Amino acid sequence: MDLFKEYAADYDRWYETPLGSMVEKLEYDLFYKIAKPKAGEKALDAGCGTGRLALDLAGKGVSVTGIDTSEAMLAIARSKVQDQNKVQFLRGNMEAIPAASETFTLVIAFTSLEFTGQPEAAVRELWRMVRPGGRLIVAALNAWSPWAWWRSRKTGHSVFAKAHFFSPWELLRLLARNTGERCLVWNTAVFIPPGANSCIIKTAPVWEVAGRLFFKPLGALIIVRVDKTRVQERLPELNLMSKLAPKPKGVTVD
Questions:
Q1: Which whole-number Å values give the CA distances from 183 to 159, 177, 192, 195, 199, in the listed order?
Q2: The CATH number of the domain where 183 resides is what?
Q3: DSSP string, 197-217
């Protein structure tokens, strides 16, 4: 069953609205700060949807393979491709990725882990794809954000009825448990409310700075980086308040 078949046609339209455009801008801002993709490297976008992030990465010189279980989403993604040498979209499940181990230096699951029925198996499979020295980036919808409440209350057909929203500590434990790594870099994005008007949207960057500094666990999107190496890179601009927040047992936030 294609969970996203009826949703695919409307997915991109929301990002064309003032609120949707700002949300994507804030999410990508944090994603690029944490992931730090490099031109020329090979990336896997697991659960690529309509290809928005994969194509953005390809535009920055990254060679991207996107996989998704939804043919409806993949059809839209493929229709956008102009250069087959930079990005390709394939049918695939993140719980059983059709690729050899340690193929990619950057592996991404961007708002896709919420929709797998086996998150433990999915994380292990994503980790299998990461080359030594590479990194896994997981971006998940935050159960502690007002956006989770708003999405869960939407009526009619909604893919979010099938989604599992993660708390920050739940996601950190899941990743630590299934990768064996203890030093995880993370923060959250999108602190404006889901019903934000035009005035709030204009001031969103101010909300974002304050939120990432003082309300780190409460942003709408959690983004975590797990490096496949014992040498951990410090990202002080993303972790100013990490020592003030309670830490999940067994997980070190650098």
A1: 32, 12, 29, 35, 38
A2: 3.40.50.150
A3: -HHHHHTHHHHHHHHHHH-GG
As given in the structure block, the two tokens for residue 160 are 């979010």
Domain range for 98 is 8-244
93-131 tens-digit pLDDT: 999 999 999 999 999 999 999 999 899 999 999 999 999
Exposure string over 207-229, b if 16+ CB within 10 A, otherwise e: bbeebbeebbbebbbbbbbbbbe
pTM greater than 0.85: yes
The closest of 103, 175, 105, 104 to 138, measured between CA atoms, is: 175
107 backbone dihedrals φ, ψ, rounded to 5°: -120, 130
pLDDT, tens only, 73-87:
999 999 999 877 789
Find tokens 């993709």 and name the residue: 37
Number of structural domains the chain divides into: 1
β-strands 63-68, 42-46: how paired? parallel
CA 245 vs CA 135, 182, 215, 239, 248: distances in Å:
24, 17, 9, 10, 10
The answer to whether residue 252 sits within a structural domain is no
- Residue 1 inside a domain? The answer is no
Give 102-166 as a DSSP string: T-EEEEEEES-GGG-S-HHHHHHHHHHHEEEEEEEEEEEEBTTSHHHHHHHT--SS-GGGG--PB
Whether pLDDT at 156 is above 70: no
Q: 249 lies in a domain?
A: no
Q: For residue 3, is it within any domain?
A: no
